[in-house]
Amino acid sequence: MRLGREEARAIGLSLPQAILLRNLRETGPTPVTHWVGVTGVSPSTATSLLDGLEAEGYVVRTHDRSDRRQVLISLTSAGRRVSHRLTEEFRRRWVDFCEEIPSAHLDSAAATLERIAGRMAAVVPDPACATVRSPSGRVRARTAPARVGRRTPRAEGRA
Questions:
Q1: What band does 77 get if pLDDT is binned at 50, 70 and 90?
Q2: CA atoms of 35 and 24, how far apart (whole Å)
Q3: For the chain, where are the E strands, in sequence order?
Q4: Bridge partners (DSSP) listed for residue 74
Q5: pTM for the whole thing?
């Protein structure tokens, strides 16, 4: 089950567009060049994705006041609403998915993920600063701080 792609498609977005909207909601206005570097998409692909989001009224592009060469991407109120809908749909599907898994299995998976996160923290003290590079040396993705929870909302009620 691929969570994310279906939710994005249901709202009329591609998965990269949905990811960009979610990230903008979390980070605020972001330079286009930063987004290109973090996701590893080409500048021309980024332009196409942004053109579509801007045409739908979800984002606006403005020049940074302190550096006019920088173009910032910002969410509009419509973009925030769509991003929120996407997040809520993802959460709903995730809870439905987790309801099919026995509580003991969820507990075991959570314990394993916590151990992995602990070991990663020992190797990379600040995961927000870590980067993953392709063999060519190009930055492909940045890791994010681990958000490991013990149980889903439904699993809380299980014995």
A1: very high
A2: 10
A3: 30-31, 59-63, 71-75, 131-133, 139-142
A4: 60
A5: 0.60
